[in-house]
Design a protein that fits this description.
The relative contact order is 0.18. By secondary structure, the protein is of the alpha/beta class. The chain has 15 helices and eleven strands. The protein has two domains: about 140 residues, Alpha-Beta Complex (Aspartate Aminotransferase, domain 1), CATH 3.90.1150; about 220 residues, Aspartate Aminotransferase, domain 2, CATH 3.40.640.10. Strands 2-8-7-6-5-3-4 form a seven-stranded mixed beta sheet, with helices on both faces. The protein is globular, with a radius of gyration of 20 Å. About 40% of the residues lie in helices and about 15% in strands.
């Protein structure tokens, strides 16, 4: 029972993806599960990267194969097509959309805008640290605000941390590594109370995994013209982490500023896969269902073992191992599972990413065996 915190070479690679080798034990949608490659098996079951083990979906795989013969071309029109798809669904224009090398590039660009010339970032901690790390690397300053008792963003404390030097506020929603969600209502109120010159970067990498995404997404504030950057990715729901496609949604003037700071262009295969997956609603529904089933298997085992965990809205669970996290992760490696890194703020807590349903059953059995030893 979970309350606030409960007890509880590109073408070659594409060919390998299509054969199911590069994904190891990951199945095609609607197909029998393939055995892992020897390299994958030697590392054990990977439950560390917050990836989607079911992707790329069938439409994305077919699109990759179809795009290979034309991959000698620069993918100008393919990028325009993906922008148009996203803009249409979100009620925006293509000028509101920027395609990135995963959402990581979007976060790096936002950090550049915030930290250059000594600007300041306000961010929760722990959270996805790429924005804070980049701000520091270019000479900016960072104000870190601890999560609240429920491992959620402490929006009141974050508002109090804003100073005249603040250029950017980062909100990862749901948060990584805790999986906790700030409701759309709370987040809209928080944004409305900030000075208009401060940009808010809302990282919605995991929000697409939720059936009530529209309730909590800040795209409506982009439509309204607020100083908001929404970052999303094809790495989670769509299972395309290795193909590196993400995007930003923001006012056209913000998108123009961000576009000037881009370092790389998206790949033709990645763009083809993303466009196909974006309209493959059947694969998306299957991914949501199976990832949620994995979470349920994991939290049921944690409840049984009376190990506390944060209430997650993502494809991972953050839980208290009741021992040093590094020791627990080493013990689980011995049992064949690679888990996430430790977090200094929570020295006994560990993040486990969702594998396939069968992999999560195996992980739950390994948990029980570990605590019975």
């Amino acid at each position: 029972m979970s309350t606030t915190v409960s007890r509880r070479a590109v073408i070659g690679a594409s060919r390998a993806l299509l054969a199911g080798v590069a994904l190891g034990a990951l199945p095609r949608s609607g197909a029998a599960q393939r055995p892992p490659s020897p390299a994958f098996a030697s590392r054990g079951i990977r439950l560390a990267g917050n990836e989607n083990p079911y992707g790329p979906g069938p439409a994305a795989r077919a699109a990759i194969e179809a795009a290979v013969p034309d991959s000698w071309k620069y993918p100008i029109f393919e990028e325009m097509a993906l922008k148009a798809l996203i803009a249409e669904r979100e009620g925006l224009t293509p000028r509101h959309v920027l395609i990135g090398d995963g959402s990581s590039e979007i976060l790096h660009i936002a950090a550049l805008l915030a930290g250059s010339g000594g600007g300041e970032l306000v961010t929760p901690t722990p959270t996805f640290s790429i924005v804070a790390d980049h701000v520091r690397a270019i000479g900016g300053s960072v104000r870190e605000v601890p999560l609240d008792a429920g491992m959620r963003h402490d929006l009141k404390a974050m508002r109090a941390a804003v100073s005249p030097a603040t250029r950017l506020v980062y909100v990862c929603n749901p948060n990584n590594p805790t999986g906790t969600l700030v409701s759309g209502t709370e987040l809209r109120e928080f944004i409305a109370a900030l000075p208009g010159n401060i940009s808010v970067l809302v990282d919605e990498a995991y929000l697409e995994l939720a059936s009530d995404m529209s309730e909590h997404s800040m795209v409506d504030r982009v439509r309204a013209g607020d100083n908001i950057i929404v970052a999303r990715t094809f790495s989670k729901l769509h299972g395309l982490a290795g193909l590196r496609i993400g995007y930003a949604l923001a006012r056209p003037d913000l998108i123009e500023r961000m576009a000037k700071l881009k370092l790389v262009a998206a790949s033709s295969l990645g763009l083809a896969a993303a466009s196909a997956s974006y309209t493959d609603l059947q694969f998306q529904a299957m991914s949501r269902k199976n990832l949620a089933a994995g979470v349920a298997i994991t939290t049921a085992a944690l409840d049984e073992l009376m190990l506390p965990y944060a209430p997650t809205r993502a494809n991972f669970v953050f839980f208290d191992t009741r021992q040093p996290a590094a020791a627990f992760m080493a013990a689980m490696r011995e049992r064949g599972f690679a888990l996430g890194r430790p977090y200094p703020q929570y020295p006994s807590w560990c993040r486990v990413s969702m594998g396939t349903v069968e992999q999560m059953r195996l992980f739950a059995d390994a948990l029980r065996a570990h605590y019975a030893a």
